[in-house]
Amino acid sequence: MKNIPRIFIGDNIATGMNITPDKSVAHYLTHVMRTHDFLAFGGGCEFNAHISDDGKNIIIGNKTNHIDPSNNITLYFAPIKHSDDLINMATQMGVNKIVPVITDHTTAHHINWERMKKIATEAAEQSNRNSVPEILNPIPFAKLDLKNICFADERFAYGDTSQNTIPQNITGILVGPEGGFSDNEFMALDNAGAVRVSLGKTILRAELAAAIAIGKMIK
Fold it and tell me: What is the DSSP secondary structure assignment for residue 32, as one 8-state letter?
């Protein structure tokens, strides 16, 4: 089964459905992969599927036994130059939702979010997920609920050794931009009681910091 292509069809698919595919999907299956059989997924489920010889119809077959390896983690992150790498890695690690957060030191303000959604879809197809993480519209730091998240705290790299464990009920993690959080943001996080997470004694690139932080959240 490993060599059969996996294609995200949508979140509302079921056995017996007949779907008109995008031209890019039809071309990929019939001309690039040279196959008419594939695995269709979406909404946490995976199905055997077949595309017609003329490439105009997809027939959704039986549901497979594959269990979605995704989790319920929400990643809050400050957009960065390499947001594509960050979203790719976060998707591969199974995050459920991705929320861009505009912080004081955010410098990447012109991200093509439609392209980011395509990257997440391709990463889900390749990583054996049955779902694609939802990417929400950017929100300002001030609108983030700081009481119910943990955050990657680079202050640990400067000798601050106090550390909290991550409570079981917290499923959201915040990662800052290349320049880190501002003093005012640290104050807001500390005052709200947000849980601090150490990523070690070195300063990491934001996309690597996100991957390590997610790893600490995976139960």
Answer: I
According to DSSP, residue 30 is labeled: I
CATH superfamily name and code, 74-217 = SPOUT methyltransferase, trefoil knot domain (3.40.1280.10)
Classify 84 as helix, strand or coil. Answer: helix
Between β-strands 6-8 and 37-42, what pairing exists: parallel, antiparallel or unpaired? parallel
Residue 34: Cβ within 10 Å count: 7
Per residue in 135-163, pLDDT (tens digit) is 999 999 999 999 889 998 888 877 676 66
* Dist. CA 218–CA 212, nearest whole Å: 10
**Which tokens is 165 given?**
């464990």
- Positive or negative CA dihedral for 136, 70, 156, 204? negative
What is the topology classification, in CATH, of domain 6-63?
Ribosomal Protein L25; Chain P (2.40.240)
- Domain locations along the chain: 6-63, 74-217
Reported as a single tens digit per residue, the pLDDT across 163-208 is: 667 888 889 999 999 888 999 999 999 999 999 888 878 878 888 8
pTM for this entry: 0.89
Q: What is the mean pLDDT of residues 32-60?
A: 95
